[in-house]
Design goal:
Immunoglobulin-like; 7-stranded mixed β-sheet; about 250 residues; elongated; mainly beta; 2 domains
């Protein structure tokens, strides 16, 4: 009788464990995930991979120019879903995003702009500028990389060579282009100069010397990417990339 009771007890424990494991398997906390992707790449051909698998857009797994799609999937609490951007020709990983149950809202809308030598995590739309006018807007993605400043944005004053002010930009930041500022076109050869200051002041945003960027201008939109760089052992700011040329 004792043997039969012991056997029944053992079976009860075994079934209890099995039921517990089964419940654990099906009781994971989940929710739907959605990522809306709007990107652009030129001239590089890109491939998006989600958890290692190529993402097909209009039946293609590699793409250039305008790149738009929507990912829909299930998020398990405690697990990470990896979205990567690759150069399709070289196999180089350009960017990666770790998407989780807790941070999915940060990735509802994912924007990027891939150009030679730079990857911007922003969405760019070429503004309309009237005939005979010049428009400038700026973004400063690597602000602080070489200057060491902790500022998240800077003030910009755009001037002619003779010091006449053309436009002012209160907040040039890392994540998005400023609003476009427009002035009348005055020369096809003369450059313009952007002076960069701490917000709300006329103090250089880093160091003691004036920070000035020499820029080419052309009629229509000029969408300039500012970059801190090292030249001859000193940090400088350049504005050589004009996104409008690719749009």
């Amino acid at each position: 009788m004792n043997k039969i009771f012991a056997l029944l007890l053992l079976l009860t424990v075994l079934f209890s464990c099995t039921d517990s494991n089964t419940m654990e398997l099906y009781d994971k906390v989940q929710k739907p995930g959605e990522v809306n992707i709007k990107g652009f790449s030129k001239p590089d051909v890109l491939q998006l991979r989600f958890n290692g698998q190529p993402v097909a857009i209009d039946g293609k797994t590699s793409y250039t120019n305008k790149i738009e799609t929507q990912l829909q999937f299930v998020l398990d609490q405690g697990e990470t879903n990896k979205l990567s951007v690759y150069n399709n020709e070289t196999g180089t990983e350009i960017a990666k995003y770790n998407i989780t149950y807790d941070n999915i809202n940060d990735y509802k809308n994912l924007y990027f702009f891939n150009l030679p030598g730079i990857y911007l995590q922003t969405y760019a739309v070429k503004p309309q500028v009237n005939l005979g006018k010049v428009g400038f807007e700026f973004i400063f993605p690597n602000l602080g990389e070489f200057s060491g400043t902790s500022l998240v944005n800077v003030k910009g004053i755009l001037k002619r060579e003779n010091g006449v002010v053309l436009a002012e930009f209160d907040n040039i930041g890392k994540d998005s282009f400023t609003a476009v500022k427009v002035y009348s076109f005055f020369s096809s050869t003369a450059p313009v100069y952007l002076e960069l200051y701490k917000p709300g002041t006329t103090e250089p945003y880093a160091g003691s010397k004036m920070v000035q960027v020499k820029l080419k201008q052309h009629t229509g939109a000029n969408m300039i990417v500012l970059q801190e760089k090292m030249e001859n052992g000193e940090w400088v700011v350049k504005g050589d990339i004009d996104v409008s040329e690719y749009l």
